[in-house]
3-hydroxyisobutyrate dehydrogenase (Riccia fluitans), 380 residues
Amino acid sequence: MGRVCSLSKIVSFSSPPGGRWYFYSSAWACLSSRFQAQPGSSSRSYANVAENAQNVGFIGLGNMGSHMAFNLLKAGHTLCVYDRNDAAVLSLVDKGASKADSPREVAEQSDVIITMLPASSHVEEVYTGSNGLLRSSRDLRPSLLIDSSTIDPQTSRVVAAKVSTCRLSTNARRIGFETPIMLDAPVSGGVGGASAASLTFMVGGPEKGLKAALPLLHAMGKRVVHCGGAGTGSAAKVCNNLAMAISMAGVSEAFALGQRLGIDALTLSNIFNSSSARCWSSDTYNPVPGVMENVPASRNYVGGFSCQLLGKDLGLALMAAKETGSPIPLTTQVHELYANICQKGYSHEDFSNIFQRLYQGEPLHTEDKEHTKDPLVDNT
Ligand code: NAD
């Protein structure tokens, strides 16, 4: 017997000032669980099965986008994909997507578009380039365009404004919009979150656009935060990554100093994680090889979030600070540190490599592990 899915409501909870969290305990989650692929089954079994399935176009099938697109297929949506890397396209076609030869062709076949591209220039090209999404004709078929790339807030606003000047074509799926809507919806959660469909989306743009996007966002993530108007999702992401980079550098500096003062990294992380230095860089993504399993530090900094992409995000923060006249001395410094690491040839490694590549920290030694296995702790 199949599970019975009741139609659920969008529930919004007030969040701290300025934002709103959306949790969509939905029929979509239910549908998605019904249409998981069986090993070896025809990939086509994903598509065209979910009630209310949408024709989704996905552009940018890299480390993040490939997983996000696959999760949409698993949720029952029909997917048309484009990437300039043919191998990335073929991998999704194998799983049941159809392929297009340009963003323009994707737009002609899709009701909703999602882009997941490296940087602002790629987003501009894909939207407004000679074969771009907005060049299909004067009138657009997609009524909703969602950009999940991490780009500068100003580009998000400019592209959203261009989208809003387009008209919807006669074959557009009408979902209550007069003109197409663009959302900036960058993500946090990394490749692991993209694969596990547990991303957090930070969304800028009109609320009605966000509500229409929720079933798709929840096929790829767990939490959606509405940040405000166009560009505010990108702004939130830039601020998040600025703080993340500074905290990673700070934790790495402290651990390297601690080692030289004779404190092993496991003991120090036990202390940090129950003290005022506790943070994500210490308790979830520790940069010292051997302190945690399943983090890039414990696999030679392979995978994860590259120094190159972080450098790009810090550049976005510098640009935004210049535009707004904001002092950001720490960002300036940490941007230089990562530029230095990239110049040394480590740009593709995970950014927690700063612990070794800059601070020359040591991996955790086996004897340190033994020493801290059963520490004498007085909790009184
Ligand atoms: P990636 O470099 O692995 O993938 C980008 C994809 O875009 C590639 O497949 C590339 O071929 C394609 N592409 C580039 N230009 C194109 C064009 N003009 N037309 C079509 N395809 C094009 O990058 P990623 O790691 O998937 O990251 C994507 C975005 O998500 C970035 O903005 C990044 O900052 C952000 N992000 C990444 C992570 C992470 O952990 N990797 C986490 C959060 C956010």
